[in-house]
Amino acid sequence: MKNLIVIISILLMIAACSGTQKASEQTASSTQVENDTLRIANDSLDYEIIIFEPGFNSWLATQRPRGYYSQSYLEQKNWRYVVAYNNRVINSQYAASGLYPQQIDYQYDTDYGYEVNYLLFHYFLFFQKEYNQNLR
Predict the structure, then answer these.
(1) CA-only gyration radius of the chain, Å
(2) Is the dihedral of CA 72, 128, 116, 90 positive or negative?
(3) Entry's Pfam families (predicted)?
(4) What does each C-alpha distance from 133 to 31, 33, 53, 113 come to in angstroms?
(5) N or C: which end of the chain has fewer CB within 10 A?
(6) Which residues of 92-123 are buried (b: 16+ CB within 10 A; e: fewer)?
């Protein structure tokens, strides 16, 4: 479980760092600078997800609300995204991009709860849009 926390945290920090230059270029002409940090934790399961991604919170506010998707739907989608993501981690073709630094340890049979699955699902959607990736 703690590996999941570390891997996702590192992944998101690296993605945030690689997106900082892009975000800086975009916000240079704008007076509003977004520095979003989102933390989800569950001490009983020993996991934590921290998303450091400029623009994620404002983008999330434009998406379908919590409760729209069932938890099982989100778990199935997350599992597919994690498998595709992890395949890119081990594929050297994607190594130079820096977007896929480490595998995500997402256990399909672990109940992470609705909130974690909702945010992870939407982060994958955001990641795909922001970095022009297709994890399908």
Answers:
(1) 15
(2) positive
(3) DUF6146
(4) 28, 24, 16, 26
(5) C
(6) eeeeeeebbeebbbbeeeeebeeebbbbbbbb
Q: What are the residue ranges spanned by the domains of the chain?
A: 2-130
> What pTM was estimated for this model as a whole?
0.68
Kindly report the three-state secondary structure assignment for every residue of 67-87: CCCCHHHHHHHHHHHHHHHHH
Q: How far apart are CA 128 and CA 70, in angstroms?
A: 21
| Residuewise pLDDT in 10s, the chain (136 residues) | 555 554 555 554 455 544 444 444 443 333 233 456 666 666 665 666 777 778 888 899 999 999 999 999 999 999 999 999 999 998 878 877 888 888 888 888 888 889 889 999 999 999 999 999 999 8
